[in-house]
Each structure stands twice: as C-alpha cells, then as structure tokens.
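User: Hey, my collaborator sent me this sequence without any context and asked if I could get a structure. I don't really work with proteins. Can you help?
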Amino acid sequence: MVNGKKLIGLCSSRIYDPQIHGYIKDLNEKLQGENCSLLIFAINSDIYWEEDAAPAETYVFDIMPYEELDCVIIMDEKIKSHKVANRIIERSKACNVPVIVVDGSYEGTISISFDYASGFEKVVRHLIEDHHAKRPHIMAGLPNNFFSDQRIDIFKKVIAENGISFDDSMLSYGHFWADPTREAMQEILKRDELPDAIICANDIMALNVCDMLDAAGISVPDRVLVSGFDGLDEVFHSKPRLTTVSCDTIQLAAATGDTVLKIIHGESVTDTYIIPELITNESCGCPTYELPQQNILTRLNSSFYRHQDDTRILYSISSRMETSETPWDMAASIHCHQAKNSLCVVDRNCFLPEKNYFLIPEDEMQPRDLHMINESEYAEEHRFEHLPLPEDLFYDESINKKESILSGNYRDRIIELTNSDYPLIFNALDYMNRPFGFNCYYYANYTVTNYSRAAIVTNAVSMGVGSYVNLTHQRFLLQKMDCMYKHDALTGLYNRTGFLFELRKKLEDPEYYGKDITAIMSDLDDLKYINDNYGHAEGDMAIQAAAEALLSACPEHALCVRYGGDEVFAVVFGECDTQAIIKAAEDALNSFNRDSGLPYVVSTSIGAYTTTFSEDFDVAQALRSADQEMYKVKNNKKKQL
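Assistant: No problem. I've predicted the 3D structure and written it out in structure-token form, which is a compact way to encode the shape of the chain:
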C-alpha cells in the first residue's frame, strides 16, 4: 500500500494479445472504485517452459516493490516458466504478500484456473459418443508434459468406457506446435486406414491437421473428424471452422477480481476452477458456430497490431540514441509521439565509458544505480513543473541503493501515476541478455495498439541505449589507442608521430599564419652520471621530472614533445614570454629537488628560438636553432663549474 492506495501486481507476458488484453481490462474495471491500482509487470516473449534459460527481460519481476504490494497475480500459462513463477512467489512470501496464480497451481498460493480435464473430456465425449467415432486418434502435446499426459489419460478413459481398446498407433505427439504436428501427420497419411477422428490437445495442432488433410485431398469432416482445444480466435475463421473448447483467459478476470477484493477486505479465499465451454463447429460435422458480429469485429481490431510506420520511426530513434555524443543527448532522443506516456529508468553505471557494461562478468558488476533519464511529459511544455528538469533527471548525483519501481528519483512520479484509473505497465530494458533498467507506460485508455506499441518502444530504447554504450566504449578505446600511438609512454608528452600529426593540422589552419612560433628545447643535465651511479630507472625518473617541468611551464595550447633520449621540447604558437617559461620550468625542478629526497639533483638546460609561422615553416630548422641556444646555456653551466 502506498499513500492509502492498494497496489496489485500482475505478472504476465504479451499484454497486447487479445485474451490477455481483455483480461487486464476486465480485471482493472473490477478493481476500480476499491482504491486499488493495478501495476502490470510484463515480458514481451514466451519462455515456453525452458527452465534453464534466463531471459533478461524477466528482470521486470525482480524490481517489483514487493514490500509495498497488497497482492500479486501470476499468469502462469502466459509466463510459461515454473522457475520464474517460483522466484516471484518466494519474494512475495518473504514480504507476506498473498499470491494468486491464474492458470496454474503452486503450494501456498491461491489458484484460479480452468478445469482443463473436464473441458477436454467434453470434446472427447462429443466426438466419441455424439459422432460415434470408432477409430479415434489423439494428437498429444509434448511427451512427459503434465497437460499432455493428462489429456492422453482422459482420451484412454473415454474410449475404454465406449468399448474401444487403446493401442500405441492411436497416439502421436505434435509438441503443441505446427512443425512437429505436420511431421506426425505425414506418418499418419502413409497408413492404409486413416483414423476417423483426430482429437488434438490444442488448436494450433488441430489447424495444422486440417490443413494437411485438405492438402492430401481428405475431406474434414466427411472422412475425418477433427477437434482442437483452448479456443484460439483463428478457429472461428478457419475452413472448416474448428470444434474446440474455449479457455478464453478473459473468463478468469471476474474470478480473479473477486479473489483480490476478498484478500484486501480480509475475507477467506479458496481456489476457483471454471469448466471451459465446448464449442461445436464444422470440423466435427456440427452446424457452424457464429460469434456475435460485434465480438468478431472487436477481436479482429484487437488482433491487428499495425502501424508499420511506428517501427520505422522507432528504428530512427534507436539510431539517434546510438550515435549521440553524450548521455543527455542520448536520453533526449527518446522524445517522440510514439514514446509518449512513458518514463525511462536506467542503471547509470552503464554510462561509464572505461568499461563496456554489457561485457563485464556478473561477479564484477557494481550494484545497479537506477535513475530516471527520460519522462515523456517533458516533451509537452514541462507540464509537471514541480519535477526536476530533464538535465537534473540524468545528472542527479544521489545514489539509488534499492532496485525497485518505487525508489530513486522516479518514486514520487510513479506514485502520482497510480492515481489514474488505468493500469501502469512495466517492461525491463535489456541488451545482450543483461537487464539495465525499465520503462513505465501510463496510457489513459485500454487501446490495444498502445499496449502493442509498449513492446516495440521497449525494444527500441533497449537497442538505443545498448548500442550507445557499445559505441561510447569503442570511442573510448580508440581514443586510448590514439593517445598511446601519439604519446610517449614514459613522459606522456607527444612522440614524434603525434607531434608531426598535430603540427600538420596547424599548418593547414591559416589562422596561425603570420604569428609568432617559438621552439623551446630542454636537455637533461648529467643523465649519464645518474644512469651510471643510480641506475636507468632513476634516469627515467629524472627524464619524467624534466618533462613534467616543461609541460607545466608552457601554455595549455603548446605542443610538448619527447623527441628521443633526454631531449624534450615544446612548440608554442603565438606570442609568449620565453624567459618566464624557462624560469617556471626551473622553479618546478627546484621544487621537485626539494621534495624528492634524492641523492642527486635534476636540472636542465633550456634554449628557445622564435620565428614567424607560415606554410613554409621548417620545424627542423626551428628545432636546430633552439638546440643551439640550449647548448649555449649548457656550455655556460660547464664554464661556471
């Protein structure tokens, strides 16, 4: 509960699917007026019970604010992963949050489900007892799958009660999917005698069975009766229209809503099982079943995910994000009408250029620091003036130590959004199978195209941020390589290659023509003595000290170079006080000698030469002239000894 508002967390997938979308609408309307806010945590793909897989988008279930939720609803058949469901249940139990499982059953939870066994028995009895099939065949789902095995057992029971003996030739496995079903049908079609009825464990398989029979010139239902199970919308528009059992998820919404209200009112609750409806149709020889015309239109409109233009525009957004120069420019690129009614939260650690966030080993990852970087309302003339400006959203220096959709610099905004009569939708942002934040969508309607758009916006933002991070890291590496290529490893000054490259750029810029250019040559005194008596490591230290002294004394725009050995020089563009530079370098070395505690003194001899810069400038001549001046200084020092 937050600010007196009861928060209901719904965990699902593919919320733009007509059945799930209808379920959400009916459930939310059931909860309206009860001071409840529905928060939808959704993935946009099916896991299909691949329990060893760890899709990064399931991170959305990790950032649920469990300690502030009043109830959690898991749509088990939509998420399709016991591992993920158990993860949600464990965290809910740790916070004493009751869990409702829709279309599934787990210990310690409340189940709201169809009585699939009773529903499947209805359709088997219809073909065996009403249509008197004598050579029935079952197209089961996955081997060793609970639902598949349950339907096989029901098939065996019903045919036994009707005096038909079961044998293995009456069973094929279609794996609940098209291609395996078609492979199984190819084997059946090779038989001398075909079954007179094929009872399928779901509608996908039944539709493919009908298609294969039709392609072989075998009439359905005249020669073979066919039935499906689970009531896909397509069965009402196929040819022939398919006999099935309607397990429309929308039918579970009312029971879910009633159970939620009982929980929040402190009433006792029990599991609820709904017997699905048998829909007889053309594929078993029954009269055509007609959906109400309005229902057909609504379902067709809901199924039309449309707007190819959205995909094009969102691709453009991803491209702009990817090629942005700064994190702020990247975040600002999200603004467009396709991304309206959304806010974006990311882990700010992914914007550290020295490491590629998506390639860091898991055990080396820093705790996520989630911050809001984009709020689409800012694109509408700063409607929420009490919120920080977009720059502040991104450059907020506070640390968010809690991974939740109700923490950090976005908590107040999301709490504000819960006052709407419509659900909030949350998708995880991920790239290269690593989660790095989430998007929140707050549509003020139930329009299914918005629910569909949320999935492609999430994908576009994920790709945009991920590609930006990759390119930023690549630029960082290229800059480091460029720096290593152009700079001396010992002193950090330009090497010959770097110096000539930078000088060439100056020569191509007429702005410097006709102005002074000064070469300053510095040579370390007594380097051989230091090397011979204290070692070459000490000699290198002395070279470093001399280089740093020259660099610190020169103007910022000067080119400071280690040309080889102990010779370092600088080229200064424009007017400069050479004597002041020389004195500053000597002062820097005097300070170094005072503080170093070394048994030797580091000193240099420095000479300077000034001429006029032009496209005919001869750098070698300028350096020779500075070198001559430097040797004059060095010789004077020797005379004074």
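In plain terms: The two ends are 86 Å apart (CA to CA). You can pass these tokens on to your collaborator as they are.
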